[in-house]
Amino acid sequence: MSFMPSFLISLAAVAVLFGIGYGGAAAGAGAVIGIYVPYAALLVFLGGLVWKVADWANSPVPFRIPTTSGQQKSLDWIRRDPIDSPFTKGEVVLRMALEVLFFRSLLKNTKTQLHHGKPAYATDLWLWLAAIIFHYSMLVVLLRHLRLFLAETPFFVTAIERADGFMQVGVPVFYATSIGILLGLLWLLSRRILNPLVRYISLPNDYFPLLLLLGIAGSGFCLRYIDKTDIVAVKELTVGLASFSPAADAIANINPLFFGHLFLVAILFAYFPFSKLMHLAGVFLSPTRNLANNSRAERHINPWNPKVKMHTYDEYEDDFRDLMKEVGLPVEKE
Ligand code: HEM
């Protein structure tokens, strides 16, 4: 099975990392895992993010290269497509918003399959649905986590918790997104393994982020619903971390599972800027998406074209007038 090495390497990496967090805390290194590692990871994350974004922002994009799949603006009587071939900045913003909020290009994505021996194209609605469920669940989970870092829980976090806990089946309240994030990730992972075309092109860098996120969501799930921890002690530590005055005393009362969860999160943050997960920032900087298709109306000149030394016809004639006259060629100026 060709996918096995890539998959197993990634699985083993996540298992070892979780073991370092869990085992490290159990062996008394809770302060390292709970304080130093998260701060270091945050620094790598911020530094890497700024470096990457600055690098992309400084890459020259001299021409309009948007990917289009609709009629561009031309003659007034030809109906144009403002979203698939945006002409104004407003239309670009609309196109980007649909992309970022609803993954529009993924929704339009087709998959190729052999149907009675012939290639056929069909929508891949399940991929889109799994991606939406995973990303929105993760967003809600992260917003709910704000409760851990702020002494006073903001009103919108309480509102989100109330909506997310609509399936309340006891204590603690069961959140729909705790399961949504896991199901979304499991779907994306099984697609990668079960679809032979996707499996063929999958590398450790494809499996690792999925498994890492599964490790984080899985350990978080256990922490909340199965092997609970002293959440007051966690909050003491996390509020301390957020206010740069970490409360090392709280560490002894916290379940090592929390440190397994936190260590995987730290790894995710440090890995993020150097991985495909940077599509989070990249989607905004992608010139195939964020440019208006207005080359017919505006001339875009490549700013680093070398200066061309012009030699006009007048100058040419000045240089060769005598010779031209000698061989009988017509001249404009006598
Ligand atoms: C990418 C970042 C993270 C993800 C995806 C994530 C995911 C999750 C998930 C899915 C749960 C299950 C319960 C729920 O849905 O709320 C959870 C619980 C938990 N997470 Fe995270 N987490 C992340 C970061 C963190 C960080 C940075 C901390 C603390 C420093 C943390 C501490 C906890 C704790 C204490 C719980 C148990 C909450 C409870 O008992 O109510 N998580 N996490």
Helical percentage? 55-70%
CATH architecture: Up-down Bundle
The number of domains: 1
Can you identify the CATH superfamily?
Transmembrane di-heme cytochromes, Chain C
Summarize this entry quickly:
The chain has about 325 residues and is mainly α.
Q: Can you walk through the features of this model?
A:
With 334 residues, this protein is mainly alpha-helical. The model has no long low-confidence stretch (mean pLDDT 93). Strands 1-2 form a two-stranded antiparallel sheet. The protein has one domain: Fumarate Reductase Cytochrome B subunit (Up-down Bundle), CATH 1.20.950.20. It starts with a helix and ends in an 8-residue tail after the last helix. The chain contains 13 helices and two strands; from the N terminus they run ααααββααααααααα. The longest helix is centred in the first third of the chain and has 28 residues, at 30-57. The chain is elongated, with a radius of gyration of 29 Å. The chain is 60% helix and 4% strand. Bound molecules: protoporphyrin IX containing FE (HEM). The site of protoporphyrin IX containing FE has 23 residues, from α5, α7, α9, α10 and α11. Protoporphyrin IX containing FE binds next to α5, α7, α9, α10 and α11.
